[in-house]
Amino acid sequence: MDIDENKIDEAALALLHLTLHDYGRAWKQIDWEVMNRLYEKGLICDPVGKAKSVQLTDEGIKQSEELFKKLFSK
């Protein structure tokens, strides 16, 4: 199957919006390959480390909210 990784990344970023807390942190329960791509796109800070959450960048917060509304609102 030919998978569109950009669509996977968009859905993952939208789901990170569900767990936003403490000024842009989100629980990192997403596949590591996806998290690395979001990091490479500048949407999250480096996800590698012992912390159970990751910091979204300002652009990541903005896009996560937009994608959440686009993908999950009625």
How are helices and strands ordered from N to C?
HEHEH
Strand order of the largest sheet: 1-2
- Which class best fits the helix and strand makeup? mainly alpha
Q: Give the overall silhouette.
A: globular
State the share of residues found in helices, binned by percent. Answer: 40-55%
**CATH-defined architecture:** Orthogonal Bundle
The CATH topology turns out to be: Arc Repressor Mutant, subunit A
Low-confidence stretches: none
Cα gyration radius (Å)? 12 Å
Which band does the percent of strand residues land in? 5-15%
Number of domains: 1
Protein name: DUF6429 family protein
Domain DUF6429: 4-74
InterPro entries: DUF6429
Notes on the protein architecture:
With 74 residues, the chain is mainly alpha-helical. It has a single domain, classed as Arc Repressor Mutant, subunit A (Orthogonal Bundle). Helices cover 51% and strands 8% of the residues. It contains three helices and two strands; from the N terminus they run αβαβα. It has helices at residues 5-18, 32-40, 58-72, and strands spanning 25-27, 53-55. It has a two-stranded antiparallel ribbon with strand order 1-2. The longest helix is centred in the C-terminal third of the chain and has 15 residues, at 58-72. The radius of gyration is 12 Å and the shape is globular. The termini are far apart.
